[in-house]
Amino acid sequence: MSIHYRSHDERHRIRTPFSLQLLLFEVERAWAYSQELTAQSLDPAKANKQSALRRSATSRFRRAVNWSTQLLSLAQSLYASKRLSAENLLELTTYTLILNGRFLRSREEQLQDALSQLSVARHLLDNLSAQATSSRDQALATLFIDEIGPEIRYCAHQLGNKRAYDVDGIVQGLSAVYKDKLVEGCDEILAVLREETARGVEGSPKQKLNTLTWEGKPVPIRNPELVDALLKVQEAEAKLAVTKKSSGPDKGRSGSNTTKHYVGAYDTVLSALSDSEGVARKQAETQQVGVCFPPLFAHGSRILDHTAKRIDCRGQPRWPGCRLRTRLYRLSAPCQKN
To answer: What is the CATH number of the domain that holds 128?
Structure first.
């Protein structure tokens, strides 16, 4: 799926939020293919094609960076015309910075530039996490913070920084220098983000996960999928509490009906707990085994459903509440191979 323009002017006339999705697909397709080629270049059975595969991977990665630059340019135009929220712009900016940073990191002679890009991305992620209006949004930002931390540390170590272990210190120092150079009007956009959060521009209230404790100590949940599962558990437990309250002896229900309501409520809780346990086990197994990301359209149906929910039947965008985090989540750690 490629984007073709009949003329140069047509390229500039396409200024709708839906175009962001098309450009995003192009970025992801090129990036996913570059990761696939990189994985193939590490296969001993293809040692004779290693150089060609690496060149092709670099070419595809560079194409992804070019598409992401166009994506960010369009996002900035939409933001300037008040058709895109500050939160969405910062998400896309972070996306582009991470992609650029990883491309530069793959070229050892540009580690300083890579470190600057990744540090500014981490600074934006810190702000997105702090201003998150739901536990899932916060978990997604935290997930990316955890992902790019080792990359920042690697770049700093390769550059001879004796305090490469102090990722927070590196980010604080470099982001103060480069944030305005890499993100135009960074402080102003962050101020707008804080205003949006304060006003609650998202409309519907966001779900917050209650603090989980184990042996008296809080347990941080840093995975968005697990947050979703635990939110269902929390909702089921709340319904169980309501069932207990409404099934008291003063409600005039028979013992049989009360038992049925209790059993149904407990079944819902147990089912949600079972699902969350499965998600946690799957995540633990994924962390133990190096897994390459699947091709772009492996999650195509989910992404298209996500897109359809943001565009109504008349094609009018609903971007003030849009989330590109589903796609951001795909751009996670670099491809690994055992």
So the answer is: 1.10.3450.40
